[in-house]
């Protein structure tokens, strides 16, 4: 069966906390018939939970609560990607979704509902062996924008200078990683990789990044919670890297590295 690339679409979604509030009286007692938007929103969260935490233990339960709060931009990325997959279902899986949509669910047990979990595994997670490249690219795009678009040193002139540096460099990732390490010598390997990948994704339009996207998928799948709580650490590290390591003070009377 041919797997087509995702067509990224706009969609409506409802936060889990708002679904709980809406059906608060029925939450523990009465199954409810969800709207299509509500069910897709729940399935997207379920995808994020089951993809990032295939085995649930006491530690992961606390981290899953972080996903369900649905406030942090990094932990939202997997569920957003899951929602995009729901918007791209083929005919067979759309029919399956419609059958699930016609059922009522007890909300207090919805994330352990066997039918919904089976759907998430077979219609979404099983396809991630192929979609890992799309997901890695999607994640890096969102992560890099969350770091750089609000970064105090990412002015247009600085961005152009960094792009010029990278355009004249053959091994971009090695070059970027070296810059990050010089500015942040205590950076561990996984953090260095994900920051280098995000940096390269934001500033370089080079192709042939499939290996990077596959590695990103692996790192994120194993470390989504840590990545989310380290966002500000990444932003500070990138700030130091840009300020100290890119010869961006030339012509301003500043220190030349």
What does this structure look like?
The chain is mostly helical. The protein is built from 12 helices and 2 strands; from the N terminus they run αβααααβααααααα. The chain folds into 2 domains: 16-129, no CATH class; 132-245, no CATH class. Helix content is 65%, strand content 2%. A two-stranded antiparallel ribbon has the order 1-2. Helix 2 (36-52) crosses helix 6 and helix 10 crosses helix 11. The protein is elongated, with a radius of gyration of 21 Å. The model is unreliable at 248-257 (pLDDT under 50).
Q: State the secondary-structure class.
A: mainly alpha
Number of separate domains: 2
Strand count: 2
Main β-sheet, in a few words?
A: 2 strands, antiparallel
Low-confidence stretches: 248-257
Beta-strand content estimate: under 5%
* Overall pLDDT: 91
Q: How far apart are the first and last residues' alpha carbons, in Å? A: 54 Å
Helices, by number, come to 12
Widest sheet, order of strands: 1-2
The portion of residues assigned to helices is 55-70%
Instruction: Categorize the overall geometry.
Output: elongated
Order of helices and strands: HEHHHHEHHHHHHH
Q: Rg from C-alpha positions?
A: 21 Å
Question: What's the structural blueprint in terms of helices and strands?
Answer:
Blueprint: H1 16-22, E1 32-33, H2 36-52, H3 58-69, H4 73-87, H5 91-101, E2 104-105, H6 114-124, H7 128-148, H8 156-167, H9 172-183, H10 189-203, H11 210-229, H12 231-245
Antiparallel strand pairs: 1-2
In a few lines, what is going on in this structure?
With 257 residues, this protein is an all-alpha fold. It folds into 2 domains: 16-129, no CATH class; 132-245, no CATH class.
